[in-house]
Predict the structure.
Amino acid sequence: MNTQNGRNPKDDEIFLIEFLNDFHNRISFAKNIDEIENKTIKWINVLEDFQCINSRTMIGLMKNYQKNDLWFSSLIGFFYQHGIGECEVNQNKALESYLLAINTESEEYSNHFNDDLKKYNIIIGKHLLALYYYKEIIVNNRAKQFANKTNLNARHDVGDCYQYDKNEKKTFKWHLKSAKENSDAKKTFKWYLKSAEGGNSEIQYSLGYCYQYGKGTNENENKAFEWYLKSAKKGNSKAQLSLGYFYKYGKGTNRDAKKAYEWILKSAEKGNSDAQASLGECYQYGIGTDKNIKKAFAWNLKSAEKGNSDAQYNLGKCYYYGRGTDRDMKSAFE
């Protein structure tokens, strides 16, 4: 592998192998399309921000690696499909890369370790290629057919189409087109607004959610942030977690990792399992706080015991690699 910008080739190889392993696990255990695409993109952004390796460098390393067609072609396709790492979105290159990953299945490769990495590349390629065809052929065509109609039922059906696709944001958008015409969503929003102005923290959180996703009103991240902040200050754990995400990704406010950590911590201490998993991530990557793999393990354990699947997966990795705890393959498997 070629050295890039004075980087250590051995460290880069270790990073790429672990990146491939983690990507494979995320794809294999994903419950829906959002986890395969949107959450994976966010995960890559976390790596970019807090492991001192940006996504442009990531794809450069994968492309320049001597076995990139055997190990990383599926990941390169994902970067092209979603325009990651300063790549322009290029569906043709994405498709070519997915097909290249799958076509390596017939090639012989003797080393057992390399066989595993090649196998992961093939599995990822199959998942992403199936999703690529599903979205291009089924979802987009069905959505276009329904969207061209003007009656309310057609608009609602487009929402159902995306709901089957597990794309909650698009489901929301199309169901809202139907709901707006009979004013239900607008009425709900108005009642939320009245109640939120009266100081109800739960309704303030719900109003922030309406602004964030455009339910009964136009999407407005600045207003979503304002209402999440009001609710969070009153101790609402869901709003505190949402506020943490807004600070973490710079939505409706300036990006501030320290404030993100502080609000996620408040939510986690109130017992919010999603926040506990996010707090584990903060400690693992040093987001707004010092890296502390023991605390990362402890918070993932709290969340995992409550049934949070992200934390359970992260906890498995902690046991597998011996991060913050003794290495324990049996516990990793469990």
User: Anything to note?
Assistant: The CA atoms of residues 190 and 287 lie 37 Å apart. Residues 112-147 form the longest helix (36 residues). The chain has four domains: 9-148, 151-181, 183-270, 273-334.
